[in-house]
């Protein structure tokens, strides 16, 4: 099982790839690591932060996809009717865009630091975009 460190603003989380459930998404994301972006608060989805990635193409389609990621689950929307994005749920999420409901590939799950997850989400909400970095350890 591959371990990751997710550095999000002033917080650090340990995580794991969901290699059994989303092998193609994990393989594609691994090629882009270490992956850096900025997390901003979601507009329509609820309690989550997202990394808008425009037309970045990871070359994957749907696998292990959901519209309702649980807190600590990270999903990749591979693009289509909305732009490519990564979303991290910190509370209740119903993944959507201005086009309507979306589904993303659940490919990473946070495994430690979950006690700080809501604080990170609220930091993004009230203080704005925060740097985020995914690295494999």
TrEMBL record:
Q: From what superkingdom does this record's organism come?
A: Bacteria
Q: Which InterPro entries match?
A: DUF3830 (IPR024532)
One Pfam family assigned to this protein is DUF3830
Descriptive protein name: Cyclophilin-like superfamily protein
Species of origin: Bradyrhizobium jicamae
Task: Provide the organism lineage as a comma list.
Answer: Bacteria, Pseudomonadati, Pseudomonadota, Alphaproteobacteria, Hyphomicrobiales
């Amino acid at each position: 099982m591959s371990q990751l460190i997710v550095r999000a603003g002033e917080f650090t989380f340990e995580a794991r790839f969901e290699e059994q459930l989303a092998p193609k998404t994990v393989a594609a994301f691994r090629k882009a690591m270490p992956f850096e972006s900025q997390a901003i608060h979601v507009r329509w989805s609820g309690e989550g932060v997202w990394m808008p990635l425009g037309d970045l193409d990871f070359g994957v389609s749907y696998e292990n996809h959901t519209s309702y990621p649980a807190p600590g689950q990270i999903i990749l929307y591979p693009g289509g009717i909305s732009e490519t994005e990564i979303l991290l749920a910190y509370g209740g999420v119903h993944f959507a865009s201005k086009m309507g409901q979306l589904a993303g590939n659940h490919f990473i799950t946070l495994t430690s630091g979950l006690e700080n997850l809501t604080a990170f989400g609220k930091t993004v909400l009230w203080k704005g975009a925060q740097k985020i970095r995914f690295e494999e350890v």
